[in-house]
TrEMBL record:
Catalysed transformations (reactions): 3'-dephospho-CoA + ATP = 2'-(5''-triphospho-alpha-D-ribosyl)-3'-dephospho-CoA + adenine
Keywords: ATP-binding, Glycosyltransferase, Nucleotide-binding, Transferase
GO molecular function: ATP binding; glycosyltransferase activity; triphosphoribosyl-dephospho-CoA synthase activity
Leading EC class: transferase
Record's keyword annotation contains Zinc: no
EC number from the UniProt entry: 2.4.2.52
Name assigned to this protein: Probable 2-(5''-triphosphoribosyl)-3'-dephosphocoenzyme-A synthase
Gene Ontology biological process: prosthetic group biosynthetic process
Family named by the database record: Belongs to the CitG/MdcB family.
Length: 309
């Protein structure tokens, strides 16, 4: 059995897609390459600039305890765990996809711990780890099952893995909800990262991926396509990060602002960047940060690259 933990991190050109056919690629290379794509997706998200309310190269958005250097350190701490998610997914493929999340929890918890160690307790990537863990393990699981690597298969596998998650983790077990996610669910019925997982990443499948693929087909750069995807996600995603900071009012403010910008501009238009900087100013003034949409942006990029062969 291959020991991914002891495999040194290879310093190489970042991969932009799987180097060979996913079904015939040697397993060790598959684990490593998918992990690298996931790492690149995290970096593509944080370095995309400008991003309203979020940390990027020019602004810390609505965050006074984070900057882009902290995100880079956080991503580096997470990196070794990403290929472990893929490998564990492959190992679990003899069983049902419904056992996938339970099977990767331990890696997820260790990964979260490494992230908090690298950031001295700041939550840079908690939601991201949860979502990336599911996608990476789904890829390993599909390979073990000899199923084609398609967006629909990744989504369906995650939907099975996440089935019942909202009921199990968000339905109140005691009178008082504890975590931010539990509180928001009990107050507003919003299901956050867990609901998105249980839907098989419906926001990514219905908005993120079609937008990214269409933009690329029209000749847009990766950055232009990602900017268009972020705005589209912000216009539709019931992001619990926005609710925890600004209530439903904060969520609707961001969704409406993003919808209006989408009507006025495409990411290739002159004036788009300035409008995004103004959107950033508006969100900083209201202490709003669309962290859930940032996570889904990275997931969109990752799935797009995984299935681009
Ligand atoms: C489910 C998680 C996200 C718990 O977080 P919490 O209770 O605070 O839930 P909540 O839904 O409010 O969101 C937390 C984060 O998810 C992201 N998020 C918010 N809304 C959304 C959304 N609609 N879609 C996707 N992501 C979202 C944001 O980054 C946010 O900060 C996860 O961190 C977790 O369970 N961690 C425990 C460790 C673990 O089991 N890890 C294994 C995963 S592989
Ligand atoms: N570029 C980014 N900037 C800010 N947040 C991001 C970015 N990319 C992803 N995120 C997501 O946003 C989440 C952090 O959001 P936030 O800081 O609002 O959470 P918190 O620290 O738990 O809450 P608060 O800051 O309100 O006390 C992370 O879990 C992460 O997955």
């Amino acid at each position: 059995m291959l020991d991914i933990v002891r495999t040194p991190i290879r310093v190489a050109e970042p991969v932009s897609q799987l180097s060979e056919d996913y079904m015939t690629l040697p397993l060790s290379q598959l684990f490593q390459q998918v992990g690298e794509l996931a790492y690149n997706a995290m970096l593509a998200e944080v370095y995309l600039t400008p991003k309203p309310g979020l940390v990027d190269r020019q602004s810390n958005g609505a965050h006074d305890d984070m900057d882009v250097a902290l995100f880079q350190r956080s991503a580096n701490a997470i990196k070794p765990f990403l290929s472990q998610f893929v490998q564990r997914g492959w190992m679990l493929s003899k069983g049902n996809a419904s056992d996938l999340l339970t099977g990767i929890r331990g890696i997820g918890i260790n990964c979260e711990r490494a992230m908090f160690g690298a950031t001295f307790g700041v939550n840079t990537h908690k939601g991201m780890i949860f979502s990336l863990g599911l996608v990476c393990s789904a890829v390993g699981w599909l390979r073990g099952r000899k199923n084609p690597l398609t967006a629909v298969n990744i989504s369906a596998t995650i939907a099975v893995a996440g089935k019942g998650l909202v009921l199990l983790e968000l339905e109140p077990k005691s009178l008082l909800p504890q975590t931010a996610g539990e509180k928001i669910y009990s107050q507003y019925g919003l299901t956050g990262a867990r609901g998105e997982a249980e839907s098989g990443f419906a926001m990514v499948m219905n908005y993120g991926l079609p937008t990214y693929q269409l933009c690329r087909q029209c000749g847009q750069t990766d950055e232009q396509a990602l900017a268009q995807v972020l705005l589209t996600l912000m216009a539709h995603n019931p992001d619990t990060n926005l609710v925890s900071r600004g209530g439903l009012e904060g969520l609707y403010y961001v969704q409406q602002y993003a919808q209006e910008l989408l009507l006025k501009y495409a990411s290739t238009d002159v004036g788009f960047e300035r409008a995004m900087v103004q959107f950033d100013d508006a969100l900083v003034a209201r202490n709003l940060s669309p962290g859930g949409s940032a996570d889904l942006l990275a997931i969109t990029r990752l799935i797009a690259q995984l299935v681009s062969m």
